[in-house]
Amino acid sequence: MKTTFRSRILASYIFLIAVPLILLGAVYYRTSLQVVTEQAQRNVYEIVKKNNALMDTKLGIIEQNSLALFVDKDLFRVFSKLDPSNEADIFDADRQVSSVLSKYFTLNEDVYAYQLWTSYFTFGQMLPQGDPTRSDVYRKAQEAGGKIVWYPTYDFVDMFDQPYLQEGKLDFRHLFSATRYLDFSYLNNTTLEKMPPGVERPVLTISFKLEALRSLYEESFPENSRYLVMNADYQVVASSDPGKVAQQYKEPWLEQVQQENSGTLRMTLDGEAVIVCFDRSSVTGWISVVWTPESTLVSSLVPVIRTSSLLMVVVMGILAMVFAYFMADRITNPIKKLLGAMRSVGGGDFQTQVAYHSNDEFGILLHRFNRMNEQIRLLVTENYEIKLREQEAEIQALSMQMNPHFLYNTLNVMNWTAIENGQKELSKMLVCLSNMLHYTSRKDWGAVHLSEETEWMSNYFYIMGARFEDKFTVSYEIDPRLYEYKVPRLLFQPFVENAILHGFDQMETGGVIHIRGWIEGDTRHYEIADNGRGMSGDTVHAILYEESSSIGIKNMIARIQLMYGGEYGISISSASGAGTSVLIRLPLHPQN
């Protein structure tokens, strides 16, 4: 029967693991290819966004610096007082303006030229521009009325109508510019001063060479990728195809790109599957588009994926056989151990523990069996101890009952003798002693009402007070609700006795015992505190956890835990010279 079960398990594992490997290999190959493609797509898209962010950071600084020129005090004074007809004034102004502009723009390595254009002079760096105020760049700045205009890449020769430069090799043949109409103002104390109405306002033009964009894109994308940067009017700012620069390039697929602003697409261009990634600049409003053939992204990984898929199928097939063989043992062996342990427990051996070395379902099963067996053993032991405690209590009760009628009669005779001799104090002590003996000699050693316990304590304190000549006083602070509940008999006796005999042994007078009781949540708290000489931490530890002479305290701790459970008991707080506080915790049971 065991052989048949094991064979079935072995066959099941071989079938369930080995057969699907072919399908798993195919799915793995296709999924890996898809994952690699998608990851490459995300990477290219992130590069496009980072390039845009980098360029936006650089151009954003230019835009912020250009705003600062509106309130530049030096430029305000220069253009407010400048006489355009005085050539000497113009050259002096050019020197001052160039100095101001250099503070704002020379540190940016992408800036090729910075100028202020007027109809009578070009301030700043000189370029063969003729009259720049006749250019479309100047016109756009005038129309914007102070807003910055990012003018896309243009042909320098065509923009400034300089045909004689057509055949020359110019490093500034293709530029793109940021331009802004400047209406200077100046805050003089609390008064805002503006330029006089008749003074011509200049146009700021910051020019960049096309290489500032070209280097950023050509060095960061995969091989065979193509890119395009254009404005909202499809004017090409930069492109991997130099022939498209400064031209209008409008294709149907670019309309979707312009509408979505940022994202990725998969499409077929010129018969080739490509991944298109695009993102719009938040500074210039230009959109950057990069498209990469899918074959380029995964060509180097296809052989690796194919080889790894085949290798995975072979390795997993071998592992499936080995795994199936050992798995059959792992299933049957724990069952055998469990059956053997159950036979031992059935024979009365509750010490039996099954060894396990895993955290799977079988390990949990064996662990639960061990815990169950341990709980049974503890229950048997606890029940045995309870029986022993009950027998000890009965023996103690019997020993204390040594002819109680004889004791009571004797104490009664002594009491009447004391009364006849006028010894009222002695008579009261005898009555207290008689009550105490009657309380402790009762056969029932179960719980008693708190009122009975406090009455016994009153008798005890009267006798001890007489013995020690009023060395101490006692006070009570007990919640009236606690009198509805029962407590173990002689609950306080070991602790008050310890306070009187040991805590006050070095005192002549002034000893105080304070007994408190209160309810907190589902727990009753009783505290016996004294102002005696206290105990060291080692003494407290010995009383609670080690063999010591405090048999009464240890017995009371054992009785509480047997009656109510291990979470209840006694704690002692004390320090030499600082008194002692004993805290007793009992559950809040309903009245019996």
From TrEMBL:
Q: Does the keyword Zinc apply?
A: no
GO CC entries: plasma membrane
Enumerate the SMART domains for this protein.
HAMP
| Compartments where found | Cell membrane
Task: Please give the CDD domains that the UniProt record associates with this protein.
Answer: HAMP
Offer an example of a GO molecular function term for this protein. phosphorelay sensor kinase activity
Entry membrane topology: Multi-pass membrane protein
Give the gene name. Answer: yesM_7
Q: Could you tell me what this protein is called?
A: Sensor histidine kinase YesM
Transmembrane spans? 9-29, 309-328
* InterPro entries assigned: Bact_2-comp_sensor_kinase, HAMP_dom, HATPase_C_sf, HATPase_dom, Sig_transdc_His_kin_internal
Q: What does the UniProt keyword field contain?
A: ATP-binding, Cell membrane, Kinase, Membrane, Nucleotide-binding, Phosphoprotein, Transferase, Transmembrane, Transmembrane helix, Two-component regulatory system
Residue ranges of every copy of the HAMP domain listed in the record: 329-381
* Pfam families assigned to the protein according to its UniProt record, in alphabetical order: HAMP, HATPase_c, His_kinase
